[in-house]
């Protein structure tokens, strides 16, 4: 077991190291211009410089606020609609085809429209982030609240549980693992939404900064912004995954993860 | 009709057909049965003959297509509506354990009390005591997934007993248990039911278990379930495992087996 543990840390580390070395060797030997592809070390240097600049935290905060607000809006609406449609068949018949059609629109293509409607400030980016992260939450919530087994319901019926008791002690815990899995996907989508919004318009946020770097041909700086965005995305994702561990410690996917760790 | 006050469960002409037209499955024929308070009866019949369906009808989880069920004088169904009043005294243990993974074993056992608003300290105390009774001491704080199949059934039994029900419906409660544990739990069950005069219906595949525990054994014939015979178990109570070695008991088993396979 100890050997397994060592391999599970050593192998991915080795993969990353080999990748970075090959990258460096390629840039050096092929004499790729630093304007096109800097070496990993140049990116690290640019990253250190980037996070040393006090302005950067303002941009990062803006992007996080946009992504998180959009995510929370998507979660609120997605869970509410999913739950309502899981409960009330007529609602599903009425609205689900419509929502699925909306989902088929490439929402990134709507981003310019949202900028037009909601302006160049935070609002338009929040709307884009919400639009992108809504569907995974909604569709998972719909499945989740429908997956309560009739046999489990019978137990609560026999115990004369009130509808509220049943919701809190049966429906909610049954649905939670699947809803949280949808939220894990959604939080990543919300970051994408915020960044795309910033690409298109505005003068704040890491997406804006990336475009600015590109226009000044500061390619290592551009990579540094990408690294920072990745770290932020990873933190948000980890937060939700952590939440899953706290809220649904009994669930097999969580228990499996614990065993792996 | 004047209600006999002592009649706890009364089935009159109960029938159940699932589905309609060509796909209709007639699960229960014409079941009529009277149980007094404290009666212990077993339903004995081949797999798929409608035993679970009959229990679910009595519990109000399934609506009969014909006939009526009265529990303590109250009809289980008022038209299309399940009567909460009539079903309140009933506790049911399902064929599957149906424990909830988000609760610990003790929380699962105490769930009926929690739903009735009993405070936490009292819930815990009663759940722990009952866990000990059914042989789950030391497992109270674990999750159901840490239990074996048989242990889960025991937890499920404890959950069914914790409210002190007046009517107990048990659907093959000890199917997954070894013979020794089964005997122990059967004795426990018998004493609980006798002391509190619980009206009990037990579904089982074990002829010995049915004969040993019951006042009467109801033998069912399949498709649709019909009551072929109701056999009195004339053995005095309290009963001990010694009873199972007596010749009258052995003769009874032979009789029941014959009745079950339909040759007389
Ligand atoms: N909801 C349902 N819809 C349609 N048919 C059903 C339904 N429930 C039960 N049946 C049918 O009714 C018959 C009796 O089923 P039931 O579960 O009551 O049998 P059982 O005697 O409990 O069997 P076992 O001993 O295997 O548990 C079966 O033929 C089954 O297919
Ligand atoms: Mg059954």
From TrEMBL, chain A:
SUPFAM superfamilies xrefs: MetI-like (SSF161098)
Annotated ABC transmembrane type-1 domain residues: 60-240
Principal subcellular localization: membrane
Record-linked InterPro entries: MetI-like, MetI-like_sf
Pfam families tied to this protein: BPD_transp_1
Family to which the UniProt record says this protein belongs: Belongs to the binding-protein-dependent transport system permease family.
Name of the protein this chain belongs to: ABC transporter permease
Organism, as annotated: Chelativorans intermedius
From TrEMBL, chain B:
Matches recorded under Pfam families: ABC_tran
InterPro entries: AAA+_ATPase, ABC_transporter-like_ATP-bd, ABC_transporter-like_CS, ABC_transporter_ATP-bind, P-loop_NTPase
Keyword Secreted among UniProt keywords: no
SMART domains on file: AAA
Domain annotation ABC transporter: ranges: 9-247
GO molecular function: ATP binding
Signal peptide bounds: none
Database matches in CDD domains: ABC_NrtD_SsuB_transporters
UniProt keyword annotation of Ribosomal protein present: no
Record's keyword terms, sorted: ATP-binding, Nucleotide-binding, Transport
Similarity annotation: Belongs to the ABC transporter superfamily.
Protein known as: ABC transporter ATP-binding protein
């Amino acid at each position: 077991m100890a050997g397994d543990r060592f391999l599970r840390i050593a192998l991915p580390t080795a993969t990353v190291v080999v990748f970075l070395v090959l990258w460096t060797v390629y840039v050096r030997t092929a004499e790729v211009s630093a304007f096109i592809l800097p070496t990993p070390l140049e990116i690290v240097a640019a990253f250190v410089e980037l996070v040393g600049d006090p302005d950067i935290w303002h941009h990062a905060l803006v992007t996080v606020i946009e992504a998180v607000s959009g995510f929370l809006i998507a979660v609120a609406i997605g869970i509410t609609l999913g739950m309502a449609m899981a409960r009330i068949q007529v609602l599903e018949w009425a609205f689900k085809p419509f929502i699925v059609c909306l989902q088929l629109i490439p929402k990134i293509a709507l981003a310019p429209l949202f900028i037009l409607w909601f302006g160049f400030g935070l609002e338009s980016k929040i709307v884009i982030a919400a639009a992108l992260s809504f569907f995974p939450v909604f569709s998972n919530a719909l499945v989740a609240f429908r997956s309560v087994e009739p046999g489990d319901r019978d137990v609560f019926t026999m115990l004369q549980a009130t509808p509220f008791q049943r919701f809190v002690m049966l429906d909610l815990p049954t649905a939670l693992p699947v809803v949280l899995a949808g939220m894990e996907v959604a939080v990543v989508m919300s970051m994408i939404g915020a960044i795309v919004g910033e690409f298109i318009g505005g003068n704040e946020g890491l997406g804006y900064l990336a475009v600015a770097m590109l226009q000044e041909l500061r390619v290592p700086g551009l990579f540094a912004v990408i690294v920072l965005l990745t770290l932020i995305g990873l933190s948000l994702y980890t937060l939700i995954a952590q939440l899953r561990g706290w809220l649904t410690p009994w669930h097999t996917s969580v228990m499996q993860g614990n065993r792996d760790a | 009709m004047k209600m006999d006050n002592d009649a706890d469960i009364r089935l009159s002409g109960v029938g159940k057909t699932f589905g309609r037209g060509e796909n209709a499955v007639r699960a229960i024929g014409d079941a009529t049965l009277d149980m007094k308070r404290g009666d212990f009866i077993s339903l004995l019949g081949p797999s798929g003959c409608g035993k679970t369906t009959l229990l679910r009808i009595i519990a109000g989880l399934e609506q009969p297509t014909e006939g009526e069920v009265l529990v303590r004088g109250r009809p289980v169904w008022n038209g299309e509506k399940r009567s909460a009043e009539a079903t309140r005294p009933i506790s049911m243990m399902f064929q599957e354990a149906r424990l909830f993974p988000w609760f610990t074993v003790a929380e699962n056992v105490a769930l009926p009390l929690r739903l009735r608003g009993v405070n936490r300290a009292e819930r815990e105390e009663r759940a722990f005591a009952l866990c000990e009774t059914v042989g789950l001491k030391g497992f109270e704080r674990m999750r159901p997934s840490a239990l074996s199949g048989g242990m889960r059934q025991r937890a499920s039994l404890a959950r069914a007993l914790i409210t002190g029900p007046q009517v107990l419906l048990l659907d093959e409660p000890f199917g997954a248990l070894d013979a020794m544990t089964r005997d122990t739990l059967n004795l426990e069950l018998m004493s609980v039911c006798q002391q509190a005069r619980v009206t009990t219906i037990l579904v089982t595949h074990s002829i010995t278990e049915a004969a040993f525990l019951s006042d009467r054994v109801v033998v069912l014939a399949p498709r649709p379930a019909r009551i072929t015979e109701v056999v009195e178990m004339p053995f005095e109570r309290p009963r001990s495992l010694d009873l199972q070695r007596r010749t009258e008991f052995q003769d009874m088993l032979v009789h029941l087996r014959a009745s079950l396979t339909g040759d007389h």
